[in-house]
Write a structure and sequence with these properties.
By secondary structure, this protein is mostly beta strands. It folds into 2 domains: about 1-35, no CATH class; about 40-170, Trefoil (Acidic Fibroblast Growth Factor, subunit A). The chain has strands at about 5, 10, 20, 35-40, 50-55, 60-65, 70, 85, 100, 115, 120-125, 135, 150, 160-165, 165-170.
């Protein structure tokens, strides 16, 4: 039986960890848990963000800075390097999206620039080309699924939105 708390419901995941699920989300049907892009606590270069149940954590807090998606907890401080989502250099289907140091101010970083159009995050330098590329979560919709890029097509796999600092998989959240 789920335990009600002031801000949500404590639910146990398949890997036996407890997470706080927002009020109003049915914890008995794990397919309906809202999923967000998560940096998994390892904020070093090359880390592959995955999907996890949306919750209040620094691992899921991304800030839009221009066209970049910056992991908020890494915003540059004294000698520190901010980490951004990066689509990589080749722009091919199934290329992994990774955390990479954000480009310095004023420097181009096309692999870190995403535009939000029609409920998708498109890699900016592929917009208007023969094969525009989008962030894609794949079809499994489970915790741990890795973020990648894939040619933009009509599919819920590419339905993402940036809302209250989180990058949410739109078909796993309830209408607001």
């Amino acid at each position: 039986m789920p335990v009600q708390e002031e801000f949500g419901t404590a639910a146990r995941t398949r890997d036996r960890q407890f997470v706080l699920v927002p009020l109003g989300v049915d914890v008995r049907t794990p397919k309906k848990l809202p999923l967000c892009v998560d940096a998994s606590g390892n904020w070093s270069a090359g880390t592959r963000p995955s999907l996890n149940v949306c919750q209040t954590t620094d691992n899921q807090d991304f800030t839009r800075v221009g066209d970049s998606l910056v992991l908020s907890a890494t915003r540059a401080g004294d000698g520190e390097k901010s980490m951004c989502l990066d689509a990589g250099p080749t722009r091919k289907n199934d290329d992994p999206v990774k955390l990479q140091p954000c480009a310095p101010d004023g420097q181009d970083a096309p692999s870190q620039e995403f535009v939000e159009r029609n409920g998708k995050f498109m890699v900016r330098d592929t917009v208007g080309t023969a094969t525009p590329m989008c962030l894609d979560v794949g079809s499994k919709r489970k915790q741990g699924a890795l973020l990648k890029i894939y040619k933009c097509v009509t599919t819920p796999n590419q339905g993402l939105q940036h809302w209250r600092g989180k990058i949410e998989v739109t078909d796993t959240i309830e209408a607001r």
